[in-house]
Each structure stands twice: as structure tokens, then as C-alpha cells.
Design a protein that fits this description.
Helix content: under 10%
Shape: globular
Radius of gyration: 15 Å
Order of helices and strands: EEEEEEEEEEEE
Number of helices: 0
Strand content: over 45%
Structural class: mainly beta
Oligomer: single chain
Largest sheet: 12 strands, antiparallel
Number of strands: 12
Distance between the termini: 9 Å
Length: 178
Amino acid sequence: MVLQSNMIPHSESRPNIRIEMESGARRVGNLLSVSFLAVGEIERLKIPKLTYSKRSDGLWKSTCLEVFIRPEKAHEKYCELNFSPSGEWAAYAFDGYRDKMHMAHFRNPIVNFEATVSTLHLWAEMRLPDIFSGVIDIGLSAVLEEKSGHKSYWALEHPEGKPDFHHPDSFVLKLPAS
């Protein structure tokens, strides 16, 4: 099953450039694939230089695509995965809402990236740990940094208040177990 949806910028961080985003997720067994597509004035985005795939911290400080995953039924534990156009990635686990962050044990995900003057496409594929063997709730989000330094925060849905991708209301996609 593939779930796709348009992403929306947070009302307090609208982009200063013309851009639209969509994202999608697909699960086959314990393999999760995610995809992000931005269309518009991509040449005005600050895109990290391509490097080799490696685990790295602080990716959310620039253009970065994020996936939040938790087991279904309001399970408090969840994981955050960050993917940069540079090929770098990060994986963190939380015991509850922004509680006790620690490195999550994910095998090296595959991260692919393409950009043109008008499109930015990033897709990643990773094996899910056993905690995610049943139905999972997912939040897809993105930080887009413009060359001017302005950042916009995108998600499928935003909770009230400031941008907060960790908020339980942001986990809006439901993917069944295979």
C-alpha cells in the first residue's frame, strides 16, 4: 500500500519562494520506503552538498526531510529519522514525547536524491526494527532552508502552536502490517 499526500507549510513559517511539496510512504514487510517531492523555485533553496551516506547529527538545521514512526494505538515510544539531500541520515528513539532521546538502531538506510532547477526529489528506504512489526503511525515532515536563510516547516498536518513534528497529532498516516 502506498499512501501519498500533499504537505503544507506551517502558518508561522510560510516559504518566501514559490514551492509545493508532496510525500508518500510504502511498506512491504519490515521495509519502509518514503518519498518527498518539492516543485517550484528549487534553485533558491539551500541544498547541502552531496557526500557519502553516513549517520550524522544536526541535519534538521538545514534542508532536511523527516519521518516519525510509532507503533499504533497511541504507543508513547517513537523514532525520528532525518534524511538530507547530502546523503547523510540520522535515527533517534524517544521513550515518550521528546523524552529520553537516544540513537535508534536502524541499519544504514538507502538515501537517493535528485534536483533540477524546478524539482527536488528525495526517497529513502530502511528496514524497520521489530518494535514496528504491527500497524504503524507515521508523520512526514520537512525543513526547507532558502538561500536567504529563511526556513519553512512542512508537514502533512500541523498541531496548534509553533511547528512541532514530534507532536502526537502529527502522526497522521497509518500503515498496516504486511
